[in-house]
Amino acid sequence: MRILITGADGQLGRDLRDALAGRVPAGGRRCALLGPEGPRPGVEHEVLATDVDTMRVDDRDAILTTFSAFRPELVLHGGALTAVDLCETDVDAAFAVNATGTRNVAEAAALVGAHMVYVSTDYVFDGTSSRPYCEWDPPSPASVYGASKLAGERECRPGSTIVRTSWLCGAHGANMVVTALRLAEGDGELRFVDDQHGSPTFTADLAPAVVTLGLDRRPGIFHVTNGGTTTWWGFVRAILAEAGGDPERVQPIRTADLDPPRPAPRPAYSVLDNMALRLCGLPALPDWQDGLARLVTALRSQQKAVA
After folding, report:
1. pLDDT value at residue 27
2. What is the SS3 assignment for 155?
3. Does any domain span residue 162?
């Protein structure tokens, strides 16, 4: 199958490339891709990996030209402006990439008859729920980032796959695990908020799920996160403990006490219920503690290889 990836150099994009090539993403497990049919041995795909340096999603002409030449059968659209605070201060840039960019990708995919998977976010919800959000709960974003990603969802053509996920961490790129491990090398107290709740999700687990949903052409919205819930404070404590550090160094603070305050509001509770996966008979991703252990091991291996 001919498959085009946007955002292919990002942390999820890198793991999507590994999954499509039959490699286990760094921090991943040697297991079959999600799906009731089991493994797909010997499958080879022709993959075109694109990012901002090769095909900007906000450039309609470039997208139409690339799609016309490559004629993908499946599009994994992970390219996005994910800098939450930047989106809050540059609204046009957020909507140009996340909304209009998705419109361009959806148009080009429709013209060549490709199935499209759009990667979205927990930020489409405002975080005021007292229970995990399911796929049929009405979205109500509180930030520009969330509003622009919801606008992208609405640009997807009927029959597309929309995958909402949260708190992404992987072996490639910046994320909370990488940041916490770097901070742990110093001394003194670390302070993280304890009033934002979510589900850390590891790209090594998410990527195979995204690939399978795309290959199966599953229509509709799917929430796909690792299992379990924590706060950023609890997550950082677990990271330090997994790396052999002292979790007692991590102290809880309230979001309101952040100095300086963040420009973009964060949802206080953005836990996603993976109901659609469950109702479709597809297996859940492992608990986040399992993914964290594998990612810390993978990051340590990378450090040793560089040394």
Report:
1. 85
2. helix
3. yes
| Total of domains in the chain | 1
Rounded Cα distance, 72 and 51, in Å: 16
Q: CA torsion 88→130→197→256, rounded to 10°?
A: 60
When pLDDT is averaged across residues 54-59 and rounded to a whole number, the result is 96
Which one of 118, 123, 133, 145 is the catalytic residue?
A: 145
Distance CA 284, CA 34 (A): 9
What's the CATH code of the domain at 29? Answer: 3.40.50.720
CA 234 to chain centre: 20
pLDDT band for 29, please (50, 70, 90 cuts): confident
Q: Is 269 a catalytic residue?
A: no
Range of the domain at 109: 2-173+199-229+270-287
Asked if 236 and 242 touch (Cβ cutoff 8 Å), the reply is no
pTM of the model: 0.95
